[in-house]
Design goal:
The complex is a heterodimer of chains A (202) and B (103).
Chain A: H1 15-29, H2 35-48, H3 51-63, H4 65-73, H5 75-81, E1 92-96, E2 101-106, H6 115-118, H7 123-126, H8 128-133, H9 138-144, E3 154-159, E4 165-169, H10 181-187, H11 190-194
Parallel strand pairs in A: 1-4, 2-3
Helix pairs in contact in A: 3-4, 3-10, 4-5
Chain B: H1 28-42, H2 48-56, H3 60-65, H4 68-82, H5 88-101
Helix pairs in contact in B: 1-4, 2-4
Classes of the chains: A mainly alpha (202), B mainly alpha (103).
């Protein structure tokens, strides 16, 4: 049995840690997986695929009206133009925030999320409280994120599923008229593209 | 089908507690778990619907008590043993062995 992953021996491995190690060790032995490939996969999602991709989509939509039209009519193809296609982003819908409508995305059943544009979902998105509450009390949830919308704003909650993933096109903040597409991409937050953040004026 | 995973509208689950900044994976085992899921999926051992269904088959109390990547671990163990890729005995023995070496 190889013991080639040095770790500080100050507390014994937890049951969960042991189960994961056992599984990886047996699957490696059976040559069904390659531990080096796992390192590569993990690195890709930790460092290469993330919300900066989605921010570039949003910035382009703010800067280029014809791109925005394409994005709202066929998001999968428009996002594909920028190269952010792939697993867990096969069928995309982009919903636009306006003065009258604010959109929020959830996956009540599990954790469906557009990986190619936003990366892996945050813990709160996958956890029970958000999934349970946002469909019933979206304003209350938004308050937990420090967002207070006017009474008259309509809130639409979109429940993602295995086949279809949503991305929110946030409202372009005031005071950003002179900004380049690259500068705009810098101010777009992950939560704004989930709908739990509203971008502040600049 | 109804199940504990169908959480929409359920009351009393506490605050959302959004973290301002959090790492992609909190612990090393979560990192390995994610890679194992992708590798075994790429290896054709299950499809995503089977994987999700195996999570939905979890005991309801256990589902609510355990973290996200524990759900993944449970699902992977369930599917790989059901499909005969590994046996529960192999997993148990290897766990014991690793625990003994971890001193």
């Amino acid at each position: 049995m190889p013991h080639d992953h040095p770790h500080p021996h100050n507390k014994p491995l937890s049951d969960v840690e042991l189960r994961v190690k056992a599984l990886e060790s047996i699957l490696t032995e059976k040559k069904l997986i390659d531990p080096d490939a796992i390192d590569l996969i993990v690195d890709t999602y930790e460092t290469k695929i993330g919300p900066r991709n989605g921010a570039r989509v949003v910035a382009k939509a703010w800067s280029d009206p014809s791109y925005k039209d394409r994005l709202l009519s066929d998001a999968t193809a428009a996002i594909g133009e920028l190269g952010f296609s792939g697993v867990q982003g096969e069928d995309m819908v982009v919903v636009e925030n306006t003065d009258d409508v604010h959109n929020i995305v959830v996956c009540t059943l599990c954790s469906c999320y557009p990986w190619p544009t936003l990366g892996l979902p945050p813990v709160w998105y996958k956890a029970a409280p958000y999934r349970a509450k946002v469909v019933k009390d979206p304003r209350g949830v938004l308050e937990e994120f420090g967002v207070n919308l006017p009474e008259e704003t309509e809130i639409r909650v979109w429940d993602s599923n295995a086949e279809l993933r949503y991305l929110v096109l946030p409202k372009r903040p005031q005071g950003t008229d002179g900004m380049s597409e690259a500068e705009l991409a810098e101010i777009v937050t992950r939560d704004a593209m989930i709908g739990t953040d509203v971008l502040a004026a600049h | 089908m109804n199940g504990i995973h169908d959480l929409g509208g359920m009351d009393g689950l506490g605050p959302v507690n959004p973290a301002k900044h959090e790492p992609c994976f909190k612990e090393e085992w979560e990192r390995r778990m994610f890679g194992l899921f992708v590798s075994c999926f790429a290896g054709g051992h299950y499809n995503v619907d089977e994987f999700r269904h195996a999570i939905e088959r979890m005991d309801p109390a256990h589902y609510l008590e355990t973290s996200y990547y524990e759900h993944w671990l449970q699902s992977l163990e369930t599917l790989l043993t059901e499909k005969g890729v590994v046996t529960q005995e192999e997993l148990d023995q290897r766990k014991k062995h690793i625990a003994m070496e971890d001193v």
